[in-house]
């Protein structure tokens, strides 16, 4: 923490809360975090009213696991890769229902409405799904009027993507999914929110996630000299330029297109902020601006969210919290996504029956505590596990065999891989057993995976010796000097053991990491 108490007396909880989650939002590119590459005036506008958290970290990755952190309050990447709300989960929306809180979801996030994410929205009192983003199966044919923008697909047919059809139906800037989502949220605040005694609004906005597609005047805003085909899909690649996955000039163009998408959605975010101004919502409504993860755009010669350790570019994320009565300031204490669930529980006075892995940030806001956690865990199921403390980021790689490994789920659904139609989650087989999750009596299917088994693609990795990575980010924020093998690693190994024990992680997680 950089300051003392933050609230003007008396200290009271907000009446309402609005959570705005922008997908793939890069902390280091925001003006409020020192970014100067792209314009983010409305994010800066929030920051001017907010507590700006400087050590906020991802938890479960990628998209849907991060939303599970936020809405259900428990890390799930130690048990499963990607899935729905499980039988033992109690989402915040269900918890606040009996307290008379109106809950609303406004989103254009397609994964919320397909296999693996289909029931996150069902406990909201109402939800508004804006169609057409990314892989949303919305339209079966192009707009016959050819009035959409742009009229021609960004890539030719054999690699045709659902978005290439959808985008022909966006006849103006306001018809793109992001603007429609922001406008719908602003309209709900104007017409529906005033009729509720208390409310929780979640705006789950897929931008600035790819495709990095924007209309004029935003297109090529940061790359006006580009004269080739517009590249809106980044490669998901390690050693991207070195391997030839993308050339250096195209890499700059893709990065610039991300920036255009960022500034574009920042502009439309202003619709929500205007409602806060017009209705004086700042006086009784908390506004939480967050993301699920960052996005590599050439850093470390990587693009997208490839199968690599979670470095700060991806895992060190922004968090802005405008809190009624709280002075704008900087908070340096360690936080992570499940802490937002705990904070919403605190705001609305509810207690999850099975507990939470999160800790409310309210003590950091009102100055009653200077820290709420000593570590945060982050990672993908079946891959490396990273632990972060105040000064270090330590990534422990699994053994070369990456076994033993198990998946726990009663929904047994996962992310559909549209581009690889034959890649699906293996079904549970005769080796499956029933077990129980920590703090739950619900029986759950536990499927083991042995060497040679087909596994969900997150766990696929080269048969190589493990390489652990340790960085002292207090002196090496760009993570350039790997200090694994030093005496510092011994302490971080013990901290990782402590964290896994505290979370009651499956024992096979410790074994596959070489921590028996």
If you had to describe this structure to a student in words, what would you say it looks like?
- A hairpin with a 6-residue loop joins strand 16 (433-436) and strand 17.
- The protein has 516 residues and is of the alpha/beta class.
- The chain is 23% helix and 18% strand.
- The strands form 4 sheets. The protein has an 8-stranded mixed sheet.
- Helix 1 packs across helix 7, helix 2 (63-72) runs parallel beside helix 9 (338-348) and helix 5 (177-191) packs parallel to helix 7 (248-278).
Quickly list its features:
12 helices, 516 residues, four-stranded antiparallel β-sheet, alpha/beta
Q: Look at the structure and give the mean pLDDT.
A: 92
Strand order of the biggest β-sheet:
4-3-5-1-7-10-2-11
Q: Structural class, from helix and strand content?
A: alpha/beta
Taking pLDDT < 50 over at least 5 consecutive residues as the criterion, the unreliable ranges are: 1-10
Helix run count: 12
Q: Per the principal axes of the C-alpha atoms, what is the gross shape? A: globular
Query: What does the radius of gyration come to?
Result: 22 Å
Distance between the termini: 36 Å
What's the main sheet like? 8 strands, mixed
Q: How many β-strand stretches?
A: 18
Please give the share of residues in helix. Answer: 10-25%
> In what range is the share of β-strand residues?
15-25%
Order of helices and strands: EHEHHEEHHEEHHEEEHEEHHEEEEEEEHH
């Amino acid at each position: 923490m950089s300051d003392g108490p933050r609230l003007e007396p008396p200290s009271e909880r907000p009446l309402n809360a609005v959570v705005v989650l922008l997908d793939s939002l890069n902390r280091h590119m925001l003006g409020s975090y020192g970014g100067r590459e792209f314009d983010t005036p409305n994010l800066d506008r929030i920051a001017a009213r907010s507590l700006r958290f400087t050590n906020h970290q991802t938890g479960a990755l990628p998209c849907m696991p991060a939303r599970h952190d936020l809405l259900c309050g428990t890390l799930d990447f130690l048990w499963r890769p990607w899935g729905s709300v499980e039988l033992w989960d109690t989402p915040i929306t269900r918890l606040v229902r009996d307290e008379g809180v109106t809950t609303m979801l406004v989103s254009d996030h397609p994964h919320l409405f397909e296999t693996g994410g289909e029931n996150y929205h069902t406990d909201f009192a109402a939800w508004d799904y804006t169609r057409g983003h990314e892989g949303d199966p919305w339209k079966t044919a192009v707009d016959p009027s050819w009035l959409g923008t742009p009229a021609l697909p960004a890539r030719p047919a054999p690699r045709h993507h659902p978005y290439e059809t959808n985008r022909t139906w966006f006849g103006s800037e306001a018809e793109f999914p992001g603007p429609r989502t922001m406008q719908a949220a602003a309209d709900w605040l104007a017409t529906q929110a005033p009729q509720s005694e208390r409310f929780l609004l979640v705006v789950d906005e897929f931008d600035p996630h790819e495709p990095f597609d924007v209309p004029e005047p935003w297109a090529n805003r940061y790359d006006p000299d580009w004269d080739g085909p517009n590249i809106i899909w980044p490669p998901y690649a390690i050693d991207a330029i070195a391997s030839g996955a993308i050339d250096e000039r195209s890499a700059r163009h893709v990065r610039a297109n991300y920036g255009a998408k960022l500034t574009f959605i920042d502009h439309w975010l202003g619709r929500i902020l205007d409602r806060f101004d017009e209705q004086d919502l700042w006086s009784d409504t908390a506004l939480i601006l967050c993301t699920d993860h960052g996005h590599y755009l050439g850093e470390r010669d990587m693009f997208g969210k490839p199968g690599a350790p979670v470095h700060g570019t991806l895992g060190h994320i922004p968090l802005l919290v405008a809190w009624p009565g709280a002075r704008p300031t900087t908070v340096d204490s360690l936080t992570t996504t499940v802490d937002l669930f705990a904070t919403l529980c605190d705001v609305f006075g509810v207690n999850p029956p099975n507990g939470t892995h999160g800790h409310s940030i309210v003590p950091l806001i009102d100055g009653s505590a200077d820290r709420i956690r000593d570590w945060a865990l982050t990672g993908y199921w079946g891959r490396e596990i990273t632990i972060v403390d105040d000064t270090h980021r330590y990534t422990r790689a699994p053994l070369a065999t990456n076994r033993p490994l198990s998946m726990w789920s009663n929904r047994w659904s996962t992310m559909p891989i549209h581009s690889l139609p034959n890649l699906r989650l293996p079904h549970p087989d005769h080796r499956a057993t029933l077990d129980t999750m920590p703090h739950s009596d619900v029986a759950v299917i536990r499927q083991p995976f042995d060497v040679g088994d087909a596994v969900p693609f997150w766990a696929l990795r080269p048969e190589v010796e493990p390489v652990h990575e340790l960085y002292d980010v207090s002196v090496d924020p760009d993570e350039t000097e790997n200090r694994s093998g030093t005496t510092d690693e011994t302490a971080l190994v013990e901290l990782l053991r402590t964290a896994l024990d505290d979370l009651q992680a499956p024992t096979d997680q410790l074994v596959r990491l070489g921590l028996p």
